[in-house]
Every structure is written in structure tokens, then in C-alpha cells.
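Hmm, how's this folded?
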Amino acid sequence: MLARCRGSKAKQKDGSNNKAMSNQPTAISRAPDGAIVIHWDDQAETIWTAGQLRRVCPCATCREKKKTESKPATKPTMLPVISAAEAMPIRVDAMRPMGNYAYNISFSDGHNSGLFTLAMLRDGYEAVVAD
């Protein structure tokens, strides 16, 4: 799993799992190592590193890039030229709420077009893609 999730899977009064409910973050903080720690209203906690968030960016550009990277190369590939910002360790520079359903995350490499839904941040990328 990409992000670590700790905490309870709270039950509703009728005993059913609360997964159908829309969990909301109660606090977002930065860990000493730079990871983003999200506390949820069901007492769970998810921890995402900046690198994990950047790798699973859901924007159209990143999705297209992942498609082309997964195809086998038909000719020798050249080494990519990267900027100084891309050579540095990635970090989250800012997180802006987008309504009550997502966060726009700005990264130190200048990338800032992905909308990370609360479901993705709570349950992990694979769980969202599988739906």
C-alpha cells in the first residue's frame, strides 16, 4: 500500500462499516521527515510521503506520462534532461482545499495541477482506481 493508514474502521450505530460515509479530515500536519499526516473523523490516520503523492498524481499530464512509460521502448531512449528542481528531493510546498472533496497539492518540482480527492487520500490510490 502506498500510504500507511492507522486507526479504527469505526462502526455506525447499526453495526455497518462507515466506508460508505464520506470521511473528512480533522487535521493535516507535517511530520518531522516531511511526510503529510492526515487525521480523519473516524480516528484513522494516513501518512503520505511527498514522493508517494507525486508518483500517484491524478492529473491528466501524469496519467498520460504513466501510459507512455509503461509501453515498451521501440528505439533506444535518450537520457532525459531534468531541471535543478527535479534533481532535488521532492517535497510538498502547499495543499489547498478544493471545495469539500479534494486538495490541490503543489510540489517543489513546480507541479501543481493534480486534484487529490479525499477518498484517494483516505483509502489509497489503488482503492480509488479499482472503483
Summary: The chain has five helices and seven strands. Strands lie at 4-6, 25-30, 36-40, 45-48, 92-98, 102-107, 115-117. The longest strand covers residues 92-98. The radius of gyration is 17 Å.
